[in-house]
Amino acid sequence: MDFQNVSVIGLGYIGLPTSAILATHGLNVLGVDVNPDVVATINQGHIHIVEPELEAVVSGVVSAGRLRAANRPEPAEAFIIAVPTPFLEDHSPDLSYVEGAAHSIAPHLQKGALVILESTSPVGTTERVSEWLAEDRPDLRFPHQVSDSESPDVNVVYCPERVLPGHVLHELVYNDRIIGGMTPQCADRAASLYYTFLKGQCVITNSRTAEMAKLSENAFRDVNIAFANELSLIADELGVNVWELIEVANRHPRVNILQPGPGVGGHCIAVDPWFLVHSAPAESRLIRAAREINDSKPRRIICKVKERAARFSNPVIACLGLSYKANIDDLRESPAVDIVHELSREGVGSILVVEPHVKKLPPVLQNAQGVTFASLDEAVRQADIILLLVDHRRFKNIDRRILMEKVVIDTRGLWR
């Protein structure tokens, strides 16, 4: 079966760029999202996220009739699932979005169809997708029902995204892709789809290895960030400038310590390691410890702000940045948002929030006591305390003479 029609389930930070790239390479793409505003925005040729160059690409393929959005799937030769996989309060994975996506596409599957799960998932999730599909379509044979030498009617594959926000369009095309097929035939079918646009290599493996590879990549980064964050706590205790410490230590030819921060956010590093911990709790002691160190860092920042705020009768605190990393609008799992929310909840002072990449405060802060959305100039001028939470480019060139007049807490080392 040749690929002419592809349906992408979930039009967020991965699903929408993937849809656009597929459409620019001649495929007819239906993007599916449950949010009617997202569907309407895309069908008008606009986008609802911030990603360089993406709006121009989406506008072009929508105008050409190659990309359209809808609330429900339709028949296609290939389906790509790119929905969220958050965790619950006990850090166990929430697969409800993936299961819902599987059930939504099941009625539209035809013999020879390809189903790709791109959402970061616990090991074994791809097999569960195959089982969910089989529940709805007993007339078709799925990979978990056949041997490796047999051909299933529907090919099911895991292929994680591995892109950096702000560089997604480039990295979708040039990064290598892990293709985790439930059978070798499944993997081959998925590789043939990705090679319609991919300049990197398709690395073939099985679905469980591919799932664990994605989790391992982000757990590796989390552990290294935790080392830097723990160093920052030790340095504070011993009166050492952590930024100078790391700069000096990194002059060793085989040392590359990362930069500390106020915590770890985003949809990957702050979430994925917990999937490994949940799957093998007794064996994942280091990974759990790293998560706990990084999750505890916001509390240490809050305590530092409260200590400084005690010097003032009615402190005004300028909180610079809300996104989980620099120069993007993504607030998912952002420690900056948590810090601002907790400062408000504890009544530490009046809080002026500056985030140049969003147009309004996120819902959790919109009704928070004493929190106001402000411009950079206004916040810096009025503040007694300047709390830098995100190292956006726009913050780097603040007049240092103004900073010298304020209490400054720089959690990113931007002004060191």
Record keyword descriptors for this entry.
Rossmann fold; 14% strand; 13 strands
Would you give an account of this structure?
With 416 residues, this protein is of the alpha/beta class. It folds into two domains: 5-200, NAD(P)-binding Rossmann-like Domain (Rossmann fold, 3-Layer(aba) Sandwich), CATH 3.40.50.720; 216-410, 3-Layer(aba) Sandwich (Rossmann fold), CATH 3.40.50.720. The protein has helices at 15-24, 36-43, 54-63, 96-105, 125-136, 168-174, 184-194, 207-238, 242-249, 272-279, 285-309, 335-345, 363-366, 376-382, 393-396, 400-403; strands at 5-9, 28-32, 67-70, 78-81, 114-117, 155-158, 177-181, 202-206, 316-320, 350-354, 371-373, 385-388, 407-410. The protein has an eight-stranded mixed beta sheet, sandwiched between helices. The longest helix has 32 residues, at 207-238. It is globular, with a radius of gyration of 23 Å. It starts with a strand and ends in a 6-residue tail after the last strand.
